[in-house]
Amino acid sequence: MPLYDVIIIGSGPAGLTAAIYSTRANLKTLVIAGAVAGGQLMITTDVENYPGFPKGIQGPELMELWREQAERFKAEFVDDNVSKVDFTKRPLKVWTSDGMHEGRSVIIATGANAKYLGLPNEERLKGRGVSACAVCVSLEDMQNRDGRPSPA
Fold first, then answer.
1. CATH topology of domain 3-113
2. What is the pLDDT of residue 120?
């Protein structure tokens, strides 16, 4: 397997931004995207606070566009999880189910996972008032009983 200048673990917003910047700097870049690529934006519906999309964009669509941009600059992707790393000597080593990958540097951009409470109706009510996102609140959730947006 080739020696990469940069190996990025994670394919959410931080990982794909790192991939775009590193590939544009002519660094040979590998993104280990994970078995479920795209981070938490893959389970997000309307993203209305990201620049350049005045009407909003669906989370999965935004992540697809981000990945396409990184691929355009020749970032390579492995859609698998990391199973092991060795950062004790150079080159740095990262393993996935398809083998070992070596890099001069590694960026860990693994993001976060939503943690739910396990309540009986939690799954049924996701997106209908139940959210694990600190800033994801629908207009309906913010409205008072009289229909006006709440002041907060």
1. FAD/NAD(P)-binding domain (3.50.50)
2. 87
**Amino acid 95: pLDDT:** 98
Which pLDDT score, from 0 to 100, does residue 127 have? 72
* 17 contact partners, CB below 8 Å, separation of at least 6: 66
Q: How far are the Cα atoms of 32, 37, 44 from residue 93, in angstroms, in the given order?
A: 12, 21, 33
Global pTM reads: 0.78
Amino acid at 150: S
Which tokens go with 39? 């981070």
The pairing of beta strand 99-108 with beta strand 92-96: antiparallel
Residues with pLDDT less than 70, the chain: 133-152
Query: Where do the domains of the chain lie?
Result: 3-113, 114-147
Output the six-digit token pair for 47. 């993203």
Per the prediction, the chain carries an average pLDDT of 85
Own/partner contacts of 71-74, CB < 8 Å, gap of 24 or more, are 73/19, 73/20, 73/23, 73/24, 74/23, 74/29
Spatial separation of the C-alpha atoms in residues 53 and 50, rounded to whole Å: 6
